[in-house]
Write a structure and sequence with these properties.
Length: about 325
């Protein structure tokens, strides 16, 4: 009788048990004014297996256009940005994961301005006067009322932006594995100069959680980071930042190895004192996409990010693709 019971349990339909989560989607903010300080990268609460090594890469292509003038400043952001992140994670212990991540960026005038303007016209969406400026132009500049340059970034080609060292600890997990809480710490070493002032090491701490049902998974993160102020620009930058995101995943939506994911990411602004939402407003991004397995050791995710509302320092949109390989 016991053997029969075990056999029936093994043959039970898969939906009776929780499907393994593939999400959330790998995403991050690409707006230049937000990348002055630590930039939150969406991560999962789950750790890599003990002793395993995971290689990961994320590529994001963003279009950014903001042109605004007032009595206090002039902002001119017109560019397209290719983010290329390469990282590695190691399951150091049963409840501890260590990692390193290298971020590269390529910026330029791009080729999508005309397409985006036509797209907005087709659906009657606001275009922020994009069509009044030359397509394919490049600028990353912020000046104050006195003409003093606060931000002026040249074009870059695969320039190393920063290096991150991280540790993640599984603080709690339910007996059935459906609920999980992890704590993460990250040290960011900036490499490129942003002309705002001397850049120093930033640190961030966050709590990551997951709750799973049969085919649904809820992912969430909340955290804070330092924004290391330059003494000669005291008051321009905030001393710290906050970030949060939540993602809802439906397992095996497209196939047995693909999940549909929808998530919202929120960050606090890095700059202050301008009273202008395009500079010191709160960026919010809606990210839609899918995540899943490509093979026994390979996994991937694809996501499209749109800024909501558009009047914020967030990138207009980002198309991101992440891929991971575990040994």
């Amino acid at each position: 009788m016991r053997r029969l019971s075990l056999l029936l349990a093994a043959l039970a339909p898969l939906p009776m048990a929780a499907q393994a989560p593939y999400g959330p989607l790998s995403s991050q903010e690409s707006g230049p004014l937000q990348r002055v300080g630590f930039t939150h990268v969406v991560d999962r609460a789950d750790l890599v297996e003990t002793g395993a090594i995971q290689f990961e890469s994320w590529v994001g292509y963003s279009n950014i256009f903001e042109n605004d003038s007032s009595a206090t400043h002039h902002l001119n952001m017109d560019l397209e940005r290719l983010s290329t992140d390469i990282g590695v994670r190691w399951g150091a212990k049963r409840r501890l994961e260590a990692g390193a991540r290298f971020a590269f960026e390529t910026t330029g005038g791009g080729v999508l301005d005309g397409f985006i303007t036509d797209w907005h016209k087709l659906f009657g969406l606001p275009d922020a006067d994009r069509g009044k400026y030359p397509f394919g132009a490049y600028a990353q500049m912020l000046t104050d009322a006195t003409g003093k340059v606060r931000l002026d970034l040249p074009k870059r080609t695969m320039a190393l932006e920063d290096v991150r060292l991280s540790a993640k600890w599984r603080a709690w997990q339910s007996a059935d594995g459906r609920k999980l809480l992890s704590l993460s710490g990250i040290a960011r070493l900036p490499i490129e100069d942003d002309h705002v002032g001397p850049r120093r090491v930033d640190v961030a701490a966050s709590a990551l959680a997951r709750s799973s049902w049969t085919r649904w998974h809820l992912h969430g993160t909340v955290g804070a980071a330092t924004v290391r102020e330059a003494q000669d620009y005291d008051g321009l930058l905030r001393g710290g930042s906050f970030f949060a995101d939540v993602a809802l995943e439906r397992a095996r939506t497209f196939s047995s190895r693909l999940s549909a994911v929808a998530q919202i990411s929120l960050e606090s602004p890095r700059l202050q004192g301008f009273d202008e939402p395009e500079i010191d407003g709160w960026p919010v991004n809606l990210v839609l996409g899918m995540s899943g397995q490509l093979g026994e050791r390979w996994s991937m995710d694809v996501g499209f990010s749109e800024d909501i509302p558009p009047e914020s320092p967030a990138a207009d949109f980002t198309l991101g693709i992440g891929i991971r390989r575990t040994w």
